[in-house]
Amino acid sequence: ADPLLEMEILGTKNNGIAGGMFGNARGYDHSGIDLACPVGTPVYATFGGTVEYVRDDVPSGFKSFSAYHNSGGWHSKEAFNAGNAIYISTVLNGKEYHLCYWHLDKIYVTKDQKVLPGQLIGTSGISGNASFDSCAGAHLHYGIRYFNDKGEIIYVDPKEFLFAEFNNFGKNINDCD
Q1: pTM higher than 0.70 for the full model?
Q2: ∠40-113-155 over CA atoms, to 5°?
């Protein structure tokens, strides 16, 4: 099943509270939503655009951040937990945004490739911090960001761009038609 169609936000490991929500659901800023799905679930582009960044060499199966960091998986200040990732540049409502797909297993697109909405771009995985013991499990981290006038990265709530409606438990409560 496609996590962007089924739309169930991943809860936390121990208490089931929807820690995969955008914002401060975990006690710190979370830059997207975590959509629950098993490893190998097809992931499709939500909007058309150009692939601006691909990383597909991050291993999985780490017990802690230090083990992950020491493996070379950590790769930048703003996306150190992303694992295997795709960033797609698109224009929404006249403004340029970047769609972020993190923790992937397989990636089927390349940098500078044009993609269409609904195009298969990869499969979900547990790369990056999704493989830590403290993580709630396999999921797709989906984020949307832009650069402000000062060149700073600003993440926005992806739910503002999706047709899904979520209840307090992270379950999609409409059929996304």
Answers
A1: yes
A2: 70
- SS3 label, residue 157: coil
Q: How many residues does the chain have?
A: 177
**CA 25, CA 36: separation in Å to the nearest integer?**
16
pLDDT tens digits for range 16-71: 545 666 666 656 677 788 888 888 989 999 999 999 999 888 776 666 666 666 66
Show Cβ contacts of residue 72 under 8 Å, excluding neighbours closer than 6 positions: none
Query: For 150-166, how does the pLDDT look when each residue is reduced to its tens digit (9 = 90+)?
Result: 999 999 988 888 877 77
Q: DSSP labels for 43-98?
A: EE-SS-EEEEEEE----B--SSHHHHHHTT----SSSTT--SEEEEEEEETTEEEE
Task: State the Cα–Cα distance between residues 87 and 18, nearest whole angstrom.
Answer: 25
Rounded Cα distance, 147 and 154, in Å: 6
Closest alpha carbon to 169 in 4, 25, 16, 49: 16
Which residues are within 8 A (CB) of 53 and not within 5 positions of it... i.e. 6 or more apart?
85, 86, 87, 111
Instruction: Compute how many other C-beta atoms are within 10 angstroms of the C-beta atom of residue 9.
Output: 25
